[in-house]
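# step 3/5: fold
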Amino acid sequence: MSTPDESQANITASVSPAVEAAPAKPVPKKENMLLNLVCNIALPTIILMKFSSEKWLGPVWGLLVALAFPICYGAWDMAARKHTNVISIIGFFGVLLSGGLGLLKLGGFWFAMKEALVPSIIGVAVLVSARTKKPLVRAIVYNDTIIDTPRVDAALDARGTRGAFEKLLAGANKWLALTFFVSAVLNFFLARYLITAEPRTELFNEQLGKMHLWSWPVIVLPSMVMLMAVLWKLLGGLQKLTGLDQDSIFRSSANESKKK
């Protein structure tokens, strides 16, 4: 942990009363990422690739059972954490749309369009949200789960850099939208490359399972790298505008115990 210099200590001291005076915000319950991966990736992939033959579930029931896991998980997670956002809702209906396309026997091109449509809608939503009081970059990157927002907000007010922070956030919002548009392009070409069979067939389900599996190294990992770059750029700007170090900006159990 880095040691703050004298100016850092002065800033922290001036911020502390404001932080203590502000009502404590409840920290949103963290999502269980292992359960997320199992329900959204592992189980659907296994069912589509191994249990969609006529010997087991068959193509139609294999598709329905595979999609039931992410649908049920999404509904349960929203209810358990009492935390919903535009991205979760769009993703939830995207899974439902996958099932609808499969049952309607629409081919690989339409699946590719669907795969590109979902992140594209999110990207547009991110851009549109910039004109509202709650840009989506706040929900995705600058939120109470990652950032100690009361401390940062108090430091911004103490230094009179609120206006510069809003410009920084607007720039981060544009870069965040770009990550979703890049994901849309990658989604489209991955789906076009892998899904060639007719829907409601065992081969189609197997190809859909492969797409779920390959989406991680081809799409998710690059998107995570871009998202981390957005977060890193935001953190660099916050350090300059608040005078706080990274340990003070990030929400941590150590910082929570200090407040108490």
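# step 4/5: annotate
Residues 1-24, 253-257 have pLDDT under 50 and may be disordered.
# step 5/5: archive (pending)
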